[in-house]
Design brief:
2 copies of one chain form a homodimer. Chain A has about 475 residues and is α+β, with helices and mostly antiparallel strands. In chain A, about 35% of the residues lie in helices and about 25% in strands. Chain A is built from 14 helices and 21 strands. Chain A has an 11-stranded mixed sheet. The first copy, chain A, has a 5-stranded mixed sheet with strand order 14-13-15-16-17, sandwiched between helices. Chain A is globular and about 80 Å long. The two termini of chain A are about 20 Å apart.
Chain lengths: ~475, ~475
Amino acid sequence: MKVSRERWSKEFRDWFRDIIFNSGVYEYRYPIKGVGVWPPYGMKIRRYVLNILKGLLEEKGHEEVLFPTLIPEEFLRKESEHIRSFEEEIFWVTRGGKEALTQRLALRPTSETAIMPVLKLCIKSHTDLPLKIYQVVNIFRSETKAPHPLIRLREVTTFKEAHTAHTTFEEAEKQVREAIEIYAKFFDELGIPYIISKRPEWDKFAGAVYTIAFDTLLPDGRVLQIGTVHNLGQNFSKAFEVTYLKPDGKHEYVYTTSYGISERVIAALVGIHGDDHGLVLPPKVAPVQSIIIPIYYTEEERGRACEEARGIAAELKGKGLRVKVDDRKDITPGEKFYFWEMKGVPLRIEIGPKDLKEGKVTLVRRDSLERWRVRREEVYEEVIKSLNEISKGLRERAWSWFKERIVRVGGLEEADSAIREGKIVEVPWCGREECGFRIEEQLTCKVLGVDINEEENAEGACVICRKDARHYVRIAKTY
Amino acid sequence: MKVSRERWSKEFRDWFRDIIFNSGVYEYRYPIKGVGVWPPYGMKIRRYVLNILKGLLEEKGHEEVLFPTLIPEEFLRKESEHIRSFEEEIFWVTRGGKEALTQRLALRPTSETAIMPVLKLCIKSHTDLPLKIYQVVNIFRSETKAPHPLIRLREVTTFKEAHTAHTTFEEAEKQVREAIEIYAKFFDELGIPYIISKRPEWDKFAGAVYTIAFDTLLPDGRVLQIGTVHNLGQNFSKAFEVTYLKPDGKHEYVYTTSYGISERVIAALVGIHGDDHGLVLPPKVAPVQSIIIPIYYTEEERGRACEEARGIAAELKGKGLRVKVDDRKDITPGEKFYFWEMKGVPLRIEIGPKDLKEGKVTLVRRDSLERWRVRREEVYEEVIKSLNEISKGLRERAWSWFKERIVRVGGLEEADSAIREGKIVEVPWCGREECGFRIEEQLTCKVLGVDINEEENAEGACVICRKDARHYVRIAKTY
């Protein structure tokens, strides 16, 4: 995407919509606004992405569960901060058949209030803790803001939410750190760059003691929140009376955390790695890691090229790779190149008459479009090596682009122009809410929060009140 | 379950509720009636069961997709039979936040009406057909009948529904046969016996040309429908105007089918294989296929038994088995036996002082509680052999019990007493609806339909009108 800054925003959004549609990632032509369909290709990417995430969670002892979508109004209202924040965006089921329900049922906007009443029944003693569960579900938010495919949906169909319960606040803190580590590893696997910020008080999750968020940046210069981790303290356990028996025989409320990732991670994958040819998929989540295309002019050449293609496919599949031969007769090799580039297949293997004669194959990398030849016997090693290089290359390219777009400035004017250039800006801030609001107002941006590793680090004066700054606070335009 | 027939019904239901709770298969204490939670252990069983089903579907070219939960009222109403049947049980979303929605949204009771508008956009030509997709989703039915965990739910959280589109009615017929084959294989893998019947006209799926159903029998003598396959003809494609371009340049409506399986398959697994000790899981879907329990009296013995246990576990895991060592210190071996029997682990491996001394281990089969010893070096082969025998044994035991309970009789009185004995009964029937209704009324049972392989096979006279019978029709008490 080499377009001038002024045209970015519009162009990126169009590019994004075209690419997810053309590559088969997401079908957004559903008769409800803000609601879409996962077609087969996108569903496969989703599956591989979720497999990585599930693997990381399970490695750390999280167990998968599945809670209902429907939450009785009474339970949703138990934690007062929570309902206050979600009230405006709850979808309410009010009728069953032709009857009005005696109690309205909410479609979950997130599952804390569905899970807590069950934890209350399951947690008895300190030996039941820590308890670490997760689920992958759909959640619903009757957004008033304009919806955007994969980014701002009214039915989010891919919400991985983890919920944990602990004996002490310190244990919950440790869990927050574990969650951050898991998410960092997850985004690293996908080559998605991020910053980790503690959200300001006014933007934390409703009912949380504090919220940590992972943010990335899309090519249009807007920050996309791609993961959040909440320390919920005893807020929910008190509202739902979830206690445990301590070794000393007393009861205490449990401490809980929750953390979530949605299909926005797929939006980030598409937006960050993609180019004018279409998707560029990290090999780990590519439904087809290598596409083999036989090239021929005569029927005899076709036979030989297809045979060689199938032989190579069998070898690579046997060794665990996801490989496909495109031997369609009705379209040209050029059309096939275009088709599979659009779909983001990391590596193309071409087998033409010259390759066959010389016992070689031609490889083409999707990320760099680099093209080279190797001997037939070396195909497997070369494919493995290239896929690793592609993974690494995508990650490095994305991180270097990202890092260039984080700048630290001292004054409002520089901040304003950096934000208009699509950057994440760090400015000195006194830490007071009113100055935070004024930053957001004056720069039409959002305060992302402060670096979790470097909370009190600022030099100089708050960009608003000019009093001593406590933090560099991160600000940006956001989705 | 050796209980007298008179007490079956009550006892089986209690047994079932206890067992799914105690073994951790399903948590039914959720604050909405007819809605439950999958805890970790049940979730793992669910995962293995779904993996088998997904594998069978994908082998036959079905691709996984994911459609939204929300369906606009207008679309749900397009197929008139369909809405008429579901009208009474749709959950309606009528409010978003504090606003009334301009159009009511249904929570899908099944997804034909969500999928058809998208197929309309995706299917252009005969080359796009056949189209075979499936999804695993939650569906909602505001049932008025008493709910029952895993069997009659208001939020079904595990609905595998496949949807296909074809060029001709014959192709759709072929697809129905393929679906039947897939489901038969699936239930065979789980050792769940079944009969396959063509449902009577009045009990077919709303909007279908005809419905084929898989039924099994639970120990209380009630039939449980565990799978359905619908030939939808052009009913939905006409309602949604889904056409394709034929090679001759004309447009025709596509022919569609759909087929589904729900968590009732887990209810069948539990009910059919379980016993007074708890679950009995077929090895293929057991989260733990073999539990290893070290037995010791002294601390020194403990060390050696645990070491041996871990060694065997490592060996079996390395060879792809799901194995766990229970080395908890705070409970006795007897308590461990009880715990893992309840959870249905197919094979127990005990390692006691005598075993260690003689270089042996003790094996115990969950299904037969048979107990024997083998030499340490033979453990892997013996475990594999036993797991296969258990799979086979469960299937055979279930089928033989099932077959004994299918009887063919000529008159109403015999039919009545067989039904009251908890059997599936085949009676001669003229084929007319009014006689079908009278059978259901007089015997307080349900007509399941006729054998799909033997539609017109009856001898003698219809049990109601005494005119010539066309079919043996299957009847039973049902869930």
